[in-house]
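As promised in the previous annual report, we have extended the structural survey to additional targets. Below is the entry for Protochlorophyllide reductase.
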Amino acid sequence: MVQPKRVLITGGNTGIGLEAARQLVQSGHHVAIACRDAKRAEAAVESLRPLAAGTGATVEWLPLDLASLGSVRACAAEYLKRHPRLDVLLCNAGLMPGAAVGGPVRRTGDGQEEALQVNHLGHFLLVHLLLPALLPPTGAGAVATAASADGGPAPAPAPARVVVVSSELHRKAGAEARVALPGGSRGAVALGSAAWLELLGAGGAGEEGEGKEGKAGDKAGEGEGPLDRYPMTGLQLYCVSKLYNALFARRLAALLLPAVTACAVTPGWVPGTSLGRGAGWLARTVYQYIFPLLPMTVSVAEGGRRVVAACVGEQAGAAAARGGYFARGALAEASPEARDDALAAAVWAASEAAAGIAPGGYLPSGVEAGAKAEGVTAEAGAGAEAAAREEGAGGLNAKAGGG
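The corresponding structure token record, generated without further manual editing, is:
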């Protein structure tokens, strides 16, 4: 018999998110979908409720616009108001940016580049805010045990999971892939760098709880950052965000084990979803209607199955898989950059700054970093964060050179 879990899915009203919700509800799990489109959310909930009949599952939705850090905070607060516990957080929502080299950076009202905020930073903040529901009730990784029917201690519940949807395209954001920055003599930066949140953002998040209540798509001129023009294509930017997803899962698992597990998963190449909504009309048409005919693509149903396996499957809960990367339904080796603990620490530090979280303030008070993260925190953390700052706007000429 399946032990019902409480699952929150971002972007659960369409595409892979909706398919994952469908499969989870059919298995008896309680599903909450978080998305920005109320009409689509209500339609998704209505389509899922008949599947819950007889399984005991429940379905609900919460408003969430990942392009607004204020909306992320409101969503987390609403979830905690409704439920004290969260067993699985599926960070699924994503955007394929339509950026063009030399075009103005598309920033949110928080001052961050839109695709990096929707795909990575919004989820980074959401997990932080939902840690009270993800962590065991007693905190600090300990789980209180109750008496079982025979008088012995009851088995401890399985740790909560955070599943971050990444992509095989994260491999394209490697150290060897470099993009020249606008301005001629400003050098070049590797796609596999922690500097992109700072370079493309205007740094408008402020202190935690004081983020701007802006909307996606605010004009670039409303808060100038180190770069006001895209130095890369939308596809390259997407690859960077997917690398950040994999690094986030790796670092999160290291910090929170054994209280919470985390992993990254790619559903495969699944055309026909709303992922390309940020692209032009021609690219959207090709993505939605032509690409699904190609033999290397994966159906929405299969993509959903792979994601669900990462959420509730036994393999993804095994010790060897924690912080790992799943591809084609099995544990796989991510790119060297996605396995770089120093880079993970640097991206983490940059994300804290961009989300308005105090340095080292991601974990709740009383929760100590897991043993796997201690060495990284002590050795790689400070050095990687300094390297990220050096590679940012202030040190690009010295660091990047002309490579």
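The first strand starts at residue 6 and ends at 10. The chain has one domain: 6-141+158-400. These points will be discussed at the next consortium meeting with the crystallography subgroup.
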